[in-house]
Structures are given as structure tokens and as C-alpha cells.
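# step 3/5: fold
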Amino acid sequence: MFDRKNIKRYYLIFVRQIRNFLLSTKSREFLIFLFFVFVSLCFWFLQTMNDTYQTEFKIPVRLKNVPKEVVMTSELPSEIRVKVEDRGTVLLNYMLGRTFFPLTFNFEDYQERGPYVRIPQEEVLKKISAQLNNSTQLLSVHPDTLDYIYSKGIAKKVPVAVGGEVSAGRQYYVSEIRVIPDSVVVYAPQGVLNTVLTAYTQPFHWTNVTDTLRKHLNLQKLHGVKFVPSSVDVMACVDMYSEKTLEVPVVGIGFPKGKVLRTFPSKVQVTFQVGLKNFKSVRAHDFLVGVPYSDVVENKSDKLTLMLKQYPDVATHIRISPSSVDYLIEQETVGAEVKEKTEK
């Protein structure tokens, strides 16, 4: 380890070596060479800065004296880009020595023009030119015109709709899509406000979702319209499919009075897929398996083909087994205990 005496000794040796190098002949020649190189660079830089160049600057934009009851539904841009041409020394002064003041516009000066205000290009150029040297040439301004739209507190509430798609992974399905909040307040001039009926989220496409997914999305922007809030949470709830089988009776539909349909078997198995969330809630009475009387009359086969006439929305991929059955049309005689059976 180094002690204080060793550190001092090494320091003195290092300083002596630096001093000897600077006082040597080669060192003096090298320093003289660097001096002339520096002087040459200075002359080259001054000569270069006298040439003409083009560059772009950003100037802030401000709108002042906006009343409290006014809601800006389409604001002025926060800044504009200005392209100018001048000698390099002038442009360097813009970059290092000068800061452009914001282009400030007074709301009260344009209040009589109504909720749609467009500031003429001449006024914009005039404010920009006031901050430029006489030798500076203004080439372009972007945007070249400034406008804004406002509403004096006129608003209404509209529902929020999902502007995208969600697809679940294998053996899963999308059970619910929630939007939080489900409605927003919209501000706009009266003519525009009447046309806004729904606020839509930004487009999205979520695939292979196997668990509840929640994301924060902005609402789609409309010109001259302001949504509060401007973003919402979209939550996609998914559930796993499970297969379930129920015994459902076969019924005749639209049979005349006194005629009854008898099938063999009288009940069939209905197999379907349903989410675990609704597995226990789906019952046999939620399904209707039957045959209309008109189909029975026109049937020329010994068997009837069964049709599913009613089923719950949560059930998918429904299968009936057997899909066709033997049948009889039973004729009931009013006031008699004996029934006449007709086999078809």
C-alpha cells in the first residue's frame, strides 16, 4: 500500500516529467504547430460563416385572455416551424444569442368571429418578421395558417364504443368487454355537438387472449370536439369453454287441437360448449327441440329430422343426438277415453 511519503514522491516525479517534456525542443515545436492550426481554423470558420445558409427554428404560440367559461375544443398548435435564410453569423446569433418570443394572440380580438376562428397568414408573418433581422429572408412557415375552435360551455354526455377487436385463445371465448367509464362528456359548438352521438376508442386488435386484459386507450379525435375524459380503460374478460350435455324433450310445434306428436325416444341429448362462468346456470328448459306441424305433414320419411328452435346465447357448438327420431301422430277424441292412433 502507498503511504503519504510515497504519494508525494510519485507526484513530484510526475510533475518533473511533464515540465521536462514542455521545455524540450520537440514540445515547443509541437505547441507552435498547434497554435497555427488553431489560427487557421479560426480564419476558416469566419470565412465559412460569411456564406449564406438555410435553417429552421421553432417559435412558441400562445393564446391569452381566454374566458373561464370557454372550452377550447380545437386549440392552436403549441409551436410553428419557421425556415429562414441568411449569413451564417446571423443564423448563429439566432441559435446562441437570441431566443424567439412566443407569438401571442389575444382571444378578445377574434371573439366576434364566432366559435370558428382562423388567424390570417398576414398577421402570423407580421409577428414573425418583427423578430428577424432585416437581412433575414423568411422562406416558409408551417403551419402557414392558425385556427382554433371553442365552445361556451355547451356539452352533452355520449356513450363510449369500442373501436377494435378482441379474439380469445384456443378453448377460450370473450365473455364481456367493459369500457370504464362507459360514457364521456363532449364539448363542441352547437352545430357539431348535434352530430356527435358516440365516442370511439382508438383502433386496436388483441389476439390470443387467455386472461382478463385491461388497457388504457385514448378516444378517437374529432376536429372541433373535446371529450372529457379523453381516454378510457377497456377490459376484455375471457372465460374457458367446457362441454355439457342435457336431456331435452322433443315437442311438436303448431299442431292442431286434438293432435299430439309422440317421438321415440321422447327426449334427446343436447351437447354444447359453455363457459365455466355459466356452466351451472344453463338448464334443459333453456332449449327447445321440436318439429313444426307443416314439416310433419310434408315429411315422406319414417323418421323426423329434429331442429333446435331455441337456445341460450352462452351456448355454442350445439349438437343433437340423435338428430332424427321415430314418431307417431296421436289423435285425441274429445269426451272419449280411447284415443285413435295413426301411424305414419
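# step 4/5: annotate
Residues 25-49 form the longest helix (25 residues).
# step 5/5: archive (pending)
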